């Protein structure tokens, strides 16, 4: 039995590249195909809109923030999303995103052995995977890391088109600037300083110019995000994050145990701070820490010698199985054979068939879906807006107060001419509105569409 355990662990630790790619793609495809992100709908709709009208300058999807200067930092990614979706539907789009996730992890880890840890790091990122904007961050960060670890300085110039692309697909391009900045400090030459300056200038080559930094700063400086939105909450105690941080810290100490403070001035340490400040950055740290951890593993004594001990082999197998099952369950527990079943599909159909006499009030998590599936109605709020403020108007704060303060709710509904409300069928909002004379127009799948007479 011990011989079988040792043989199995040896095979896992030295997993073939093709097998690793197949496993990674399968995991990320399942996650991408059978979940739909709350923001997916407005991304698809905006991609279609921009092909005809160009990048929007003000909000086009709500009636509450119609004059807000929308800086759409994901404009190019949305156009690509729409084109792929238009050609092959959600299945093709999920396959493309699964391929991007797979490429990100595989390409970073390709020069190293110990492919088992690559799989575990990917499982840590799996809960945040799918057809989501963070995918572009993962893939382009990988490309930048590959470029900057080239021995020949001339090849570092490939960082320039990488940064140009990044600045047009996602606002996280500032992470790329951070990596190039660390690279310039490390090499201390006019060449790397020029690389950083040109990269910075190239980030201004987008439809909004320097204003794209306004959107980045608006999000980064908004401390309320960490209490309002689940994925922005700080210091989330997750098994996966703890495992990655532990492995990363051990690898850093192993690299220079006499001077452990040298781990601090590295980009992966800064990305760790991002992951601790908001759980949505955990997959970025899982990726950024991979080279450090894999180098550390290669410095360890031969795994073959360790596995020769039957007790260590048995313990290792138990740890591998437990970690894989735990992380795999956490990453895939939200999948559904019909991912749209998590959203108000029937209510969106009802809205298309029966237009509201006034405006529609909706839940924050349903806004993006309604923009996609009920485009004839502008929404009250959606996933773009937690940090949107104009003058004294805080759009998300208004939404929160409407849910908490009944008198304020009535005043705002009158102000915005809200005559329809889409809410949870058994939720507090629906119960209260029924007592105020609102009636159910349609209900299905746990949702109810309520109307009031004017």
Question: How would you describe this structure to a colleague?
Answer:
This protein has 454 residues and is mostly helical. Helices cover 60% and strands 6% of the residues. It has helices spanning 2-13, 17-33, 40-53, 75-109, 115-125, 134-148, 159-169, 173-187, 190-202, 212-220, 225-228, 239-255, 267-277, 282-288, 290-299, 303-307, 310-332, 345-353, 367-373, 395-404, 406-415, 428-435; strands spanning 359-361, 389-390, 393-394, 418-424, 439-444, 447-451. The strands form two sheets. It has a four-stranded mixed sheet. Strands 2-3 form a two-stranded antiparallel sheet. α4 packs across α6 (134-148). The longest helix is centred in the N-terminal third of the chain and has 35 residues, at 75-109. The radius of gyration is 24 Å and the shape is globular.
What distinguishing features does this structure have?
454 residues; mainly alpha; 4-stranded mixed sheet; two-stranded antiparallel sheet; 22 helices
Question: How many angstroms separate the termini?
Answer: 76 Å
Radius of gyration: 24 Å
Please state how the strands of the largest beta sheet are arranged side by side. Answer: 1-4-6-5
The proportion of residues in beta strands is 5-15%
Order of helices and strands: HHHHHHHHHHHHHHHHHHEHEEHHEHEE
Described by strand count, sense and barrel closure, the largest sheet is:
4 strands, mixed
Domain count: 2
- Global shape: globular
Helical content stands at 55-70%
Q: What is the count of DSSP helices, taking H or I runs of 4+ residues? A: 22
- Structural class category: mainly alpha
Uncertain spans, ≥5 residues at pLDDT below 50?
A: none
Average pLDDT metric: 89
Number of DSSP E strands: 6
């Amino acid at each position: 039995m011990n011989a079988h355990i040792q043989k199995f662990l040896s095979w896992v630790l030295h997993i073939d590249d093709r097998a690793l790619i197949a496993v990674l793609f399968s995991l990320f495809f399942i996650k991408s195909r059978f979940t739909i992100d709350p923001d997916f709908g407005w991304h698809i709709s905006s991609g279609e809109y921009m092909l005809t009208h160009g990048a929007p300058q003000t909000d086009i999807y709500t009636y509450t923030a119609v004059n807000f200067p929308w800086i759409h930092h994901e404009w190019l990614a949305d156009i690509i999303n729409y084109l792929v979706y238009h050609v092959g539907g959600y299945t093709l789009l999920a396959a493309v995103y699964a391929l991007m996730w797979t490429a990100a992890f595989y390409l970073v880890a390709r020069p190293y052995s110990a492919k088992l840890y690559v799989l575990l790091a990917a499982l840590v990122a799996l809960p945040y995977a799918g057809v989501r904007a963070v995918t572009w961050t993962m893939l382009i960060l990988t490309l930048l890391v590959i470029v900057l670890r080239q021995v020949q300085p001339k090849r570092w110039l490939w960082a320039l088109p990488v940064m140009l692309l990044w600045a047009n697909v996602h606002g996280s391009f500032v992470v790329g600037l951070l990596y190039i900045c660390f690279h310039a400090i490390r090499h201390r030459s006019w060449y790397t300083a020029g690389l950083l300056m040109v990269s910075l200038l190239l980030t201004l080559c987008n439809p909004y110019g320097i204003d794209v930094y306004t959107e980045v700063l608006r999000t980064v400086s908004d401390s309320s995000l960490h209490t309002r939105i689940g994925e922005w909450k700080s210091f989330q105690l997750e098994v996966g994050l703890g495992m990655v941080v532990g492995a990363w810290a051990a690898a850093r100490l192993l690299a220079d145990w006499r001077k452990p403070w040298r781990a601090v001035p590295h980009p992966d340490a800064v990305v760790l701070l991002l992951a601790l400040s908001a759980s949505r950055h955990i997959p970025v740290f899982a990726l950024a820490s991979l080279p450090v951890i894999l180098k550390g593993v290669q410095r360890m004594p031969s795994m073959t010698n360790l596995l020769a001990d039957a007790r260590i082999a048995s313990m290792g197998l138990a740890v591998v199985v437990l970690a894989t099952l735990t992380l795999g369950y956490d990453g895939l527990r939200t999948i559904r054979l019909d991912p749209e079943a998590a959203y108000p599909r029937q209510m969106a159909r009802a809205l298309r068939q029966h237009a509201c006499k006034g405006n529609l009030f909706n839940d924050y998590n349903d806004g993006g879906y309604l923009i996609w599936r009920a485009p004839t109605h502008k929404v009250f709020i959606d996933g773009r807006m937690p940090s949107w403020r104009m003058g004294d108007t805080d759009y998300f704060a208004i939404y929160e107060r409407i849910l908490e303060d009944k008198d304020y709710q009535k005043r705002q509904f009158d102000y915005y001419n809200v005559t329809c409300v889409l809410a949870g069928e058994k939720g507090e909002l629906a119960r209260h509105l029924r007592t105020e004379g609102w009636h159910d127009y349609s209900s299905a799948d746990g949702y109810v569409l309520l109307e009031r007479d004017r």
